[in-house]
Amino acid sequence: MKGILIFLIFLNLVIFKVCAQDDDYVISNPTDIKKEIKPTTNSTLNTVPNPDFTNYFVSSSAYTLKKNTFRLSGTDVVFVKGSYGLTDNTTVSVNLSLFGTVNASIKQKININEDIKLGISASVGRLFFLPPDTTVFNAGGEAMVTLGDVQDNLSVGTGFYYVKSNFDLINEEKELFIHTVYIGAQKQISRKMYLMAEVIYLLNDKVLTGAIGIKLVVGNRISLNFGLMPVAWNNPSNNKFSTMPGAIPLISFRMLLGGK
Fold first, then answer.
1. Which residues contact 245 (CB under 8 A, 6 or more apart)?
2. CA distances (Å), 20 to each of 108, 126, 237, in order?
3. How far is Cα 246 from Cα 132, in angstroms, rounded to an integer?
4. In which element (H, E) is residue 11 found?
5. Nearest to 93 by CA among 155, 28, 21
6. Nearest to residue 249, comparing CAs of 209, 201, 198, 211?
7. What gap in Å lies between CA 100 and CA 214, rounded to an integer?
8. What are phi and psi of 34, to 5 degrees?
9. Can you give the pTM of this predicted structure?
10. 131-177: pLDDT as tens digits
11. What's the CA gap between 175 and 203, in Å, rounded?
């Protein structure tokens, strides 16, 4: 039972992070993107712009949407999100899920220099698939630093999340506080294929997870991600990590709507 409850906390975190990870998944202008890409010794790798350089499977990099650009994304037929670039450095989003969650988020990018970006995001929402006399609200924020360019980058971040309910959630508590740290990276391995990997650790409940897989680029406005997410947590009975059988499959679809 303890493992199931911890996994539910983790699942709620995924809802937060999928909403908060905004998000230049796809490009509005291939020419603009190419200007940001540094030449490499293998020029053939850069002939196809990367339409998905701002996020990994779950975690976020510091990049944001271009101004006046819309983006539609979906993950595992569970999460659907629409995003809009208010400016080149500010993106707002609305996320819906089959769990009955509705979240809104905003993300701000700060350009430190050509190779270092700082991102700050915040989200708020609630769970609707509940009896009329019950409520669950959530809020969270993240900060992350991204190193590298749009083809190859690495991000390190941390997030804080708060869940408030009018009924007992876990251990007769109506409030939950979740603190995470993560690292994510993506590397171009061919003209239209990238390798992505990330590690996420929930400090409060000692839950360790992550993801590894590939990203396929279709044209210059669509990306398809395929990966696996294992989950492990610290078992209080023996102070050792227990693992969930198998791994959660991750399939993401991201597409640009509008823009040039």
1. none
2. 11, 14, 34
3. 36
4. helix 2-20
5. 21
6. 211
7. 29
8. -60, -30
9. 0.78
10. 777 788 899 999 999 999 888 999 999 999 999 888 777 777 788 89
11. 16
